[in-house]
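User:
Note these tokens:
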Amino acid sequence: MTPVLYARIAGLAYLAIFILAIGANFGVLEGLLVRGDAAATLANITAHETGFRLAIAALFLVLFADLIVAWAFYVLFSPLAPKLTGLTLLFRVAYTISHIPFVVLLVIALRAATSDASLFAAPDVAVYELIRTHSAGFTYTLLFFGVHLVLLGVLALKTRGLPAILAVLITLAGVGYLVDGFGILLVPDLFAAIPLLGVFVVIVPALLGEGLLTLYLLIRGVDARHWAEAPVSS
């Protein structure tokens, strides 16, 4: 297996993450959640139970794909900078593991909305709060992911394994996730007061950094000669 093949594996897994995560979160969950109306949210889930189940399954597949990306990056970069690559891997794995409980909350919400509704005194409120908690929790798990992207950008610059401009964009995407998570935690109304702030701080940098990274890995892969010629470093 060559460095180019590992890069393509990472690219394919990243593409799966984009498709599944966007489809589940924005295509399904955002459409089912009616803000401020727990009863309407429960009614939406009951009417679209299959879609809700598919969205949950998609988010579990995203977790699988994240681990594949982490593994592919580790195998790819560890010969060039083993210590920094290991640290980069740890933060992506930490993000993935911390995200698992919040996906499980959606499974509990599904139970509250369907077969086990009688176990909850107010199933509509339970479903509504579980979905909102998933969304909030996911934002905080992205703090680990933000550090991972910053480290990945530094790793790419240090090893010259990716173009410098792409490494900078990846780093900026990571900084955006950190600003988003800590911003919501420390100044809860910041992004509500400035709606476009989230777009320019999080969405645009993420689409540019991670989107271009995905395309680069799929189309260009990496320069195999660079991997063959580069000396092993710490």
